[in-house]
Design a protein that fits this description.
The chain has 368 residues and is α/β, with parallel strands linked by helices. The chain is built from 12 helices and 9 strands.
């Protein structure tokens, strides 16, 4: 069965971690360690490369651009000025565009693009030579320095924006800070521009107050690309039921993250994220599917839960459930759902059809 991954910060792995993701996964994992990479995450734990995505029948991914402007109290590394933040994000977009020139990927800009791409994958038995579909999103809107740039990003192929990543951004309070604040004044302007240009709002990583305010102001389509359930795992990085319900009521899709910190039922204090000890074997796909099932029960159907891997953005293999060695193992989710009496149609919804339906309804008809 095909899969659509709702969150893959691919350019981060390629550029910040200096991985050649056009190679087979075995070669990526055996690369000589790079002393200059940003955080030293080992290549040996890499979950995904383009050949491995094809092997795992991952036909499409929501591929992210991630470039944070560093601020006081920011929990993660970021760039020291807005100009270089913008430039780094532009470089990531160019990386995706170069992969498209090489026919490694197909950037999905319209519903027609998506329909044709999935028809190609569905009608082809051997996927090893097919381009992987990418819908481009920005995770944290710091690279958008002026409202006029929204249309520029749109023309380049951007279709999804989240307002913040970890910490406080130009536009709102985000997760990982322990703050409870909401939107900043520039967010209202950005949300209007997003509506005008038919860009999708991703409420992942926004603080509770920011997510509520953004959905109240924004009239366009909404998703939570990689967002788990606070009723199962405590902590600010997960959403409470009212925010999950708001996304569902807007016709949105909630992608469940593979991040083991978001699956560990002991929870994590995201305002003071000290390391907590649990083994990789403590987190399984049963824990993962608990969140999918919870969203389905909350919705009353299987039409709003999906995969939102945060693939390789969550630390790779070391930060994934025990059964996940590479992204191809996402196929194992089917069996766990089947064992919980989900039908084949419901499983298809969760693995790819929900994302397919949402984007076919939300993307523009043509390429303009």
């Amino acid at each position: 069965m095909l899969i659509i991954d709702g969150d893959y910060p691919m350019a981060f792995g390629a550029m910040d971690l200096n991985r050649d993701l056009t190679l087979p996964i075995e070669e990526v994992r055996k690369a000589k360690p790079d002393q200059f990479s940003v955080n030293g995450w080992p290549d040996s734990d890499t979950l995904a490369s383009l050949p491995e995505m094809r092997h795992g029948k991952i036909a499409v991914a929501l591929a992210k651009i991630v470039a944070r402007h560093n601020r006081i109290g920011s929990p993660l590394w970021g760039y020291r000025g807005p100009e270089v933040t913008y430039a780094a994000a532009r470089a990531q977009m160019i990386y995706y565009q170069m992969l498209e020139i090489q026919n490694q990927v197909k950037i999905i800009r319209s519903r027609l693009d998506l329909t044709n791409h999935l028809q190609l994958w569905s009608s082809t038995v051997e996927h090893s030579n097919l381009p992987v579909g990418l819908i481009i999103g920005i995770e944290g809107a710091d690279p958008i320095l002026q409202k006029e740039q929204v249309q520029q990003w749109w023309k380049e192929g951007l279709r999804v924006i989240s307002l913040s990543h970890y910490g406080i951004s130009t536009y709102c309070h985000g997760t990982g800070t322990g703050t409870t604040g909401g939107l900043f004044p520039p967010a209202k302007v950005l949300l209007r521009e997003m509506e005008t240009n038919r860009i999708i709002l991703d409420v992942t990583h926004a603080s509770d107050a920011s997510a509520r305010e953004a959905m109240e102001l924004f009239n366009g389509p909404v998703i939570a690309s990689h967002q788990n359930c606070r009723s199962i795992v405590p902590g600010e990085r997960q959403f409470p039921d009212d925010l999950l319900t708001s996304v569902i009521q807007r016709g949105g899709v909630i992608g469940v993250s593979m991040d083991s910190w978001m699956l560990y039922k002991g929870g994590r204090d995201w305002s003071n994220p000290q390391p907590q000890t649990f083994s990789r074997e403590d987190i399984t796909l049963e824990d993962y599917v608990d969140h999918i099932d919870y969203i389905c029960q909350l919705a009353g159907n299987s039409l709003h839960a999906a995969i939102g891997g945060d693939t390789d953005g969550q630390g790779g293999r070391a930060g994934a459930p025990a059964e996940i060695d590479t992204v191809a193992d996402y196929q194992k989710i089917s069996k766990v759902l089947e064992d919980r009496n989900y039908s084949s149609e419901e499983i298809a919804n969760i693995l790819y059809r929900n994302w397919q339906r949402f984007f076919e309804n939300s993307l523009p008809e043509g390429n303009s």
